[in-house]
Each structure stands twice: as structure tokens, then as C-alpha cells.
Amino acid sequence: MVDVNSLVQMWVRLLLVVTVCLAKKSLKGTRPNIIIMNMDDMGWGDLGHNGEPNRETPRIDQLAAEGLTATSMYTAAPLCSPSRASLLTGRLPVRNGFYSDNLPGRNAYTPQDIVGGISADEILLPELLSTANYTSKIIGKWHLGHRSPHLPLERGFDQWYGSPNCHFGPYDDKTTPNIPVFRNDKMVGRYYEEFPIHQGESNMTVLFTSEAVSFIHEQAGKEPFFLYWAPDATHSPTYASKAYMGGSKRGKYGDSVRELDAGVGAIMDALNATEQSNNTLVVFTSDNGAQLISKFDGGSNGPFLCGKQTTFEGGMRAPGIFWWPAVIKPGSVTHQVWTQMDLFSTSLEVAGVELPNDRFLDGMPLARSFQHPELEVLRPVFLYRGDRLMAVRQGAYKIHVWTWSTPDHFLVKGIDFCPGSLVPNVTTSNATNHTNQPILFNIEIDPSERYPIHPSNPTYQQQVPQLLAIVKKHEDTLQKGTPQLNWCDDHVMHWAPPGCEELNKCLPAPPSNPTKCYWDH
């Protein structure tokens, strides 16, 4: 009997060799600067070029018009921390350890009482780029661990301006400390104190944009740079500066989007002013789908089902824009199925850095898409919720082997990850196993995941066995990383971050009492 999965993988490897050679031949020249703009909870449907009717993102839309749009860009997780860990490691959270197995299939992240952080066994993108003399800077939210040895400057970045966590608060600095803001390896203040956020007004996006523009000017004429720009203004509670408050037809969330759009424009203007545009690859994306439970303080996932926290399209389908004037033809579109883990491998590819060969990488080098957007590598994309494989997409087809939308105990409180989008047997309020009869969609025809293909349909009978074979091989060969998000302890919160002594901002910590974190969905 022919092993269909083996044939598929052999074809993928052959096509990869050919297309990577094409890319390397075409992408000659000096090593480009690399900018990855990773928004926070910004939905696919928030952008004008994706159909948002108010058209309030002109600079991001310009980026797409002058570059390449990837219509199928997936995150590696339906929420912040594991998604970001995978972008920077090229590996699924279940491999790099950014998950919890305290309970099966639960979303876990890095609140300030988390004990763990990104594993020392992982190699991050800036660590590898440093071997090619790249200077790397992160601006904005880190979210991969807030204590040594998990901080950015200990994991390959040369500079940092931002915070280890989201801007939650304000707290009382007694039962819970306010979140610190760092410059490099020391805190320079705390949110809601030295960095005020009041009734949705904050200058943080102004600061993050100014920091990026200054860095670009400073690096002009030097060795190449990697800028990871990760502002968090669109994460609820959203914020914007006074100049942008009240200007959007979409309320406070729209104000945040408009200011971030202006920030994108300022960064692009800085590249043009310093004559670095032709030698800079810019990527625009978001860490997961829009958080629909935030209602008017959240974004839009366009036609896609559900939102953040789910493995439906609305939870893990993100904007995907690439801009590189010397390489990418304006107005290009690719239907290649991407994951943000491919940004890891593709960044190394264009930088001329060899990919690590001592570990399994889920990300693929796909630079050939920049000049050959019509080429598509048939590859599976695995969609996880915590430690549980929920769905797989390959080509036009997606199967759900498990489904779970919003838990019942959330629904009774009016919290719904899929508001107004009840699909029988799909948006289940309990974790539901469909392995014996997976739910199949043609995701290109039905991106809303409302019309499953019936098991009696010949397409179902052809596609499902192939996709189940891919699932089995994946699960049989998967080597899970040690879970880093299992333990919580109030003692490790931001009581005394590095640099607090100089600012007289150290706070007394409670005794250590580690307990297993409870992740309720």
C-alpha cells in the first residue's frame, strides 16, 4: 500500500530544495535589515486592505499595496505568550515548552506570577542573527518570562525598551505590584505610575514609535539590524495618546489602531529617510486573532469564526504582510499557507544564517514566496490549544479532531469567544473529541467554518484519511518540551525588578508558595 503521507513529505522536501535554491539565487546582495511588527490582539478584519469599511489604516494598507499579502498566515497558538515564543523559536509551543499540562487542552500564558519562562534549551532568532553581526532590539511586550534568565538581553537581544508583560492594572503595589517598564536590563518605572494610563489615554505608542525611529536612524550605515516591534495598545484595556483619542469611528479600539497605523508609517518614513528601504524586509502581523470578548474594546476577525482563545480561523488566522521594495513586486499576493514560525526560518534564510540542525523546526524557509508568490508548498499546519492538537490545515482543507469554543462557566457570565456564531457540533462549549469522525472544511471556499463537508461526500472520504495519517505521524513522532507554564507563585511577581533600587521602587515580596497554575480554558 502506498504511504500517502510519506509521498507528500518527500514532495515537500524536494520542492523545498528547489525553491530555496531559487530564492538564494535571486535574493543576492547584502544581508537585509529585518523588522517584524507583531501587533497584540489585532484581528485580520481590522485592516482596510482586508475590507474594514472605515479604512482607518492607510499606512498599513500602503505596506500591503507596495508589498506581498499572505492570505493564510497562522499563529502557533490562539493567545499571546505561546504564539510569541513560537515566532522567535520556529517551534510549536508543545515543542518549545510554552504550554501547561496541568489540565489537558488549556490555554496558558505568562502572567506576573508565573515561575517559568522560555527554556534555556531553545535558540531564539536574535541569538542566531547575532552570528551574522546583526544588532537586535525589541520594543514593546516581551511575554516570554519576566525574571532572569528569561529576559530579552539574556536571550539574544542587544537592546530593549518595553515591558515583560501586558499593561494590566492599576494595582495597589501591596497585594499586586504594577508592571515595570524596562530600558535594556533595568526597570525605568511602572505602568500607571511613571508611565500613566488613565481612562484609555497613554503615550506608550508614542514612546514605542519614537524608540523605533531613533533605532533605525542610529543603525544607518552600520551592520544589519533586527527590530522586533511589539506594541500592545490594542490589547484590552486599549489605549491611545490624546492626539488620537476620539478620532476613530470604531471607538477606543479604533483609536489604538489608528495610532499604531501612524507608528507603522513613521517607521517606514524613517527607512526611506535613511535610504534603507531597499535593503529592509518588513513583516506585519499579529500574535493571535481579535479578542471578541472585549466587544467594543476589541477588534474584528472579518469573515472568520470565533476569536482569540480558540483554534478556529478567527483565533489563529492573522494579518500577513511582507514589504521589501528591492525584492517584492508591489501588489503581490500569495496563497501559500504560512505560520509565524516560518518567520524564524525565513529571516535566517535571507540573513544567510544556517538553520539549527539539532532540533525539529516547524517553521519553513519560504523566502521564495517574495519573488515567486505563485509557488505553494503543500504542508500541514498544526493548530494546538495548550498540549492538545485540535485541528490541522493542509492546502484548502482543515480538519478538527477536537473542538472547544467557550466553557459553560464563561457563557453563564456573558463571556463568549464566539459571539453570535453558534455552529452545531463545531462551536462546542465542552472539549469534544471528533477523532472517529473529524469535522472537515474547505477553508478556501468556507473560511467562516459554517458548512462542514458531509462524511458521505467523496471529498471527505478522500481528504480525511490523508489528514488523519498526517495527525498520527505527527503525534507518534512528537517530542514534547518540558512545560514551562505549570507553576505560579506570588513571590515571583514584580516586587523588585532589576534596577528598582536606583529608583527606590523595590517592594517587599510575600513568602514563596509555589502552586500549580489553574488555567480555566
From TrEMBL:
<comment type="similarity">
    <text>Belongs to the sulfatase family.</text>
</comment>
<feature type="signal peptide">
    <location>
        <begin position="1"/>
        <end position="23"/>
    </location>
</feature>
<feature type="domain" description="Sulfatase N-terminal">
    <location>
        <begin position="32"/>
        <end position="353"/>
    </location>
</feature>
<dbReference type="InterPro" id="IPR000917">
    <property type="entry name" value="Sulfatase_N"/>
</dbReference>
<protein>
    <recommendedName>
        <fullName>Sulfatase N-terminal domain-containing protein</fullName>
    </recommendedName>
</protein>
<dbReference type="GO" id="GO:0046872">
    <property type="term" value="F:metal ion binding"/>
</dbReference>
<dbReference type="GO" id="GO:0004065">
    <property type="term" value="F:arylsulfatase activity"/>
</dbReference>
<dbReference type="Pfam" id="PF14707">
    <property type="entry name" value="Sulfatase_C"/>
</dbReference>
<dbReference type="InterPro" id="IPR017850">
    <property type="entry name" value="Alkaline_phosphatase_core_sf"/>
</dbReference>
<dbReference type="InterPro" id="IPR024607">
    <property type="entry name" value="Sulfatase_CS"/>
</dbReference>
<keyword id="KW-0479">Metal-binding</keyword>
<keyword id="KW-0732">Signal</keyword>
<keyword id="KW-0378">Hydrolase</keyword>
<keyword id="KW-0106">Calcium</keyword>
<dbReference type="InterPro" id="IPR050738">
    <property type="entry name" value="Sulfatase"/>
</dbReference>
<dbReference type="Pfam" id="PF00884">
    <property type="entry name" value="Sulfatase"/>
</dbReference>
